Amino acid sequence: MADTTSGTAVLDSDELDRNIFDDGVFDGFEPHRRGDPYPRYRALQDATPLYKLPEGVYLATRYHDCVSVLTEAKWGRADVNGVNPFAPEYKIENLPFLWHDPPDHTRLRRLVSKAFTPRAVAGWRPLVERTVTRLLDDALAAGEVDLVEAFAYPLPLIVISELLGVPEADRAQVGRWSSILGRGVDPGLLLPPDDIAARAQAMRDGVAYFRELIARRRVEPTDDIVSELVAVEEQGDVLSELELLNTCVMLLNAGFETTVSVLANGTLALMRNPAQLRLWRANPDIATAAVEELLRYEPPLQITTRVAHEEMELAGRTFAAGESLVLLIASANRDPDVFADPDRLDITRYGRQAAAPSVLSFGKGIHFCLGAALARLELEIGFDQLIRRSPGLAQVGDELSWLDNISLRRMRALPVRLR
Ligand code: HEM
């Protein structure tokens, strides 16, 4: 049955599935589609701006709709009862400010932003360069490696751990719970109970870990971000213990798996488009534009979510206050009405005079990624050195296995030859 709430027909799943998926229902989030979900997303996008998932929640598929939701304050994160419908097992105050609405979000983001100034990010460059160089020295000496294990995973883990002051001995353990927490951005209603229990446990592990680290920094501050957040203060306002804990867990988690994903998926995309790889190698100055294009082409977070704070119109449908919505960032980034030849990897796209519209991979609006400058730094230096130092870069074998996560999309391993 078509939803005619506002007079414009928005086809529901059954009708669409009959129309566009001869072989069944939309399965773009299923593990067997993780390798290449894009044709599934495109089929939805061509057919409809809003698709109702069997679980009852709508999926927005087009760029301008996603932008209008992300930049509209009446689309927020918590419902009218102060609950995030995608993670109802948590009270909002036990979640980091990524999940908060103004005025709380405004206050927390302002305080935490003090540790992410352009000056601070510029000061992190030597750490990133050093780490990239060391990891690639080892990988090149080995010649053939799993690029995820040797480079894409450790680079952001080391960088964010160094910045937060997580000692080397703790990193393997911290990396493990942070990876499980990658499930934190998946809509709970699409997850099996075991995964919901695992992400809740990972959150508890993260909080317990940072409780100790924060206690140590209160007594003996260093020059790391945790010490800075402990001391941060604006007009008498400070972060409470709970706010500090939630922020540290979020920074570790947000600053890690997403970057792993671009390094791994981006390298695969370049190896599959050898002319683009050659172009980058011959023009190292293109790195900033090329990274932007990789972010568009392979967004680590494929979806994000919002909740209507009051009755809202979108793409011809009326959403009641409290109704939730999933934004398919990965299809918005490839909307043919916005991006020319959207399925083509074109590392010059963002270098041309009439620059392409902004990618949604870091979000947009008040929740725009706080760590975008750090992520870009790691990606530019990481890809630059990888491409320059490994002229023989090539995939070994063609079997790839992908994480089962819905939002975060990355492969488990990427065997490559570097020399
Ligand atoms: C390629 C890497 C990254 C990607 C693709 C990414 C993506 C995103 C996206 C899409 C959002 C907004 C979500 C929404 O509005 O629903 C976000 C928010 C955020 N990100 Fe990132 N991120 C990356 C790296 C980082 C890093 C390195 C850090 C910090 C160390 C970080 C910290 C944050 C924080 C704190 C927020 C919450 C901002 C707010 O709610 O105001 N991210 N990120």
What characteristic shape results from the CA principal axes?
Answer: globular
Strand content: 5-15%
Number of strands: 12
Helix content: 40-55%
Mean pLDDT: 92
| Number of separate helices | 17
Q: What CATH first level would be assigned? A: Mainly Alpha
The molecules bound to the chains, other than polymers, are: protoporphyrin IX containing FE
**Structural domains: how many:** 1
Order of helices and strands: HHEEHEHHHEHHHHHEEHHHHEEEEHHEE
Low-confidence stretches: 1-9
Q: CA-to-CA gap between the ends?
A: 57 Å
Q: Order of strands side by side in the largest beta sheet? A: 1-2-10-7-3
**Major β-sheet annotation:** 5 strands, mixed
Structural class given helices, strands, pairing? alpha+beta
CATH architecture: Orthogonal Bundle
CA gyration radius, whole angstroms = 21 Å
Keywords: Heme, Iron, Metal-binding, Monooxygenase, Oxidoreductase
Pfam families: p450
Family: Belongs to the cytochrome P450 family.
Organism: Amycolatopsis pigmentata
Give a written overview of the molecule.
Pfam families: p450. This is Cytochrome P450. The structure is a single chain. With 419 residues, the protein is of the alpha+beta class. It has one domain (13-417): Orthogonal Bundle (Cytochrome p450). 46% of the residues lie in helices and 8% in strands. The chain is built from 17 helices and 12 strands. It has helices at residues 13-20, 38-47, 63-70, 104-113, 118-123, 125-142, 147-152, 154-164, 171-181, 193-219, 225-231, 241-254, 257-272, 274-282, 287-297, 329-332, 372-389, and strands at 50-52, 58-60, 75-76, 144-146, 233-234, 237-238, 304-308, 312-314, 317-319, 324-327, 394-395, 415-417. The protein has a 5-stranded mixed beta sheet, covered by helices on one side. Strands 4-12-11 form a 3-stranded antiparallel beta sheet. A hairpin with a 2-residue loop joins strand 5 and strand 6 (237-238). Helix 10 (193-219) crosses helix 11 and helix 13 packs parallel to helix 17 (372-389). The longest helix is centred in the middle third of the chain and has 27 residues, at 193-219. The relative contact order is 0.17. Residues 97-98, 109, 160, 250-251, 254-255, 258-259, 262, 300-301, 304, 361-363, 367, 369-371, 374-375 line the site of protoporphyrin IX containing FE (HEM).
